């Protein structure tokens, strides 16, 4: 039984385990940096070497994790008296070890190499609107991931096994319950919004906005929120992302001359990810106590900053003068008009990362259903474009004219990241629950945002979420932070109140 005390013999075995874990996590960090470089700075012709480099590092990581001594140390420590933090480390390493030890190194290498090869193919296929060019890579990755899941648990739903790579502490059944509640709230709400005759401003940011100036605005947004440039950087990529460690957490965004808000919201979204990474304890670097809890928690941080802060009227009362300073043509826009435009629910909603806060989740449902059918073998890769378009029409009322606007828009399948998408909606639900708890503890969060005082919120999140690393499992972490189990209730209350007021809905 784990206790707060430890025996005299524990430190040797525990410290040996910790040193091995640090080595494998540093290998993982090196892989992440090479992946960042491939997506941001690497010359176009660098893929053949980069795919081999990443494959080699993935094999080294796998071999370190599945080493016989690692298993022996874990077995030894199971019978020792450990502190709660030591027990958490052993629990997390044990989970990773037991999954990894079942997967052949050769398969791990092949998956890593294939994802590295698939990335530039996806980028070109998207540019050329050519699903057929990318489809063979998807087909191979689906098959490789099926094999991977089969090795880990031949008796389980393979998609549930893959989902556990991104959210190891919530069952897929529990995740589906939360996703269902979100969907059942949003579908009738979106229908009511589309039928609403309440006028709101939708064109506050209409026009053409040069990308160099947009980048300057994005940098000012990150500075306003408190991004520590000495531990990060902003770059551009075909798909915005964040990666790194508590010492170096980088963000990327992208720019569209007709959409200056897209680059700001994506930058703030990635800022949320980076803030979580930077909030992990320095002294626990490369150990489970210095690693993020999982993708649902990670997405909660990005969605909290993007939606509860970056889409709030208080934020636009603060940040609109910065926008008008860089783009004088916006001088006549009011904070209320900016707020309404940023939060409008679109009729035409093709691109997930450009979607509004509500219909965004129907994009997630679509992807979840398609990739689950792919992994189950109920859908062939060749059928994906047609099924995607049919589901877009069914769920969002719009049909993509090109695959670049449809099934080629996301980077995730080039990474082999099947099972990732549900964490976006889970993260949104968690963000609302965490923000409610923070608002209850802090004096007038809106007033602080309006005044540009973001430190209190960031420190609250660091205290209640970031600093714990993987000490708690997902539901326990949420309960520690909010006093309640993880649920969709705060999210459904939040969107009902916010959009009910915006569109004067009868359901409010």
Explain how this protein is built.
This protein is 63% helix and 3% strand. It is mainly alpha-helical and 508 residues long. It folds into 2 domains: 10-124; 172-503, Neurolysin, domain 3 (Orthogonal Bundle). The chain is globular and about 65 Å long. The model is unreliable at 1-10 (pLDDT under 50).
Q: Can you give me a brief rundown of this structure?
A:
The chain is mostly helical. Helix content is 63%, strand content 3%. Strand 2 and strand 3 (248-253) form a beta hairpin.
Which key terms come to mind for this protein?
three-stranded mixed β-sheet, 508 residues, single chain, disordered N terminus, 2 domains, 20 helices
Overall 3D shape? globular
Number of DSSP strand runs: 3
The low-confidence parts are: 1-10
CATH architecture call of the largest domain: Orthogonal Bundle
List the strand order in the largest sheet: 1-3-2
Mean pLDDT: 95
Largest sheet: 3 strands, mixed
Strand content: under 5%
Report the total helices: 20
Q: Do you know the CATH topology of the largest domain?
A: Neurolysin, domain 3
N-to-C terminal Cα separation, in Å?
A: 50 Å
Helices and strands, in order, run as HHHHHHHHHEEEHHHHHHHHHHH
Q: Supply the number of structural domains.
A: 2
Instruction: Estimate the helix proportion, in percent.
Output: 55-70%
The Rg value, from CA coordinates, equals: 23 Å
Return the CATH class of the largest domain: Mainly Alpha
Structural class: mainly alpha
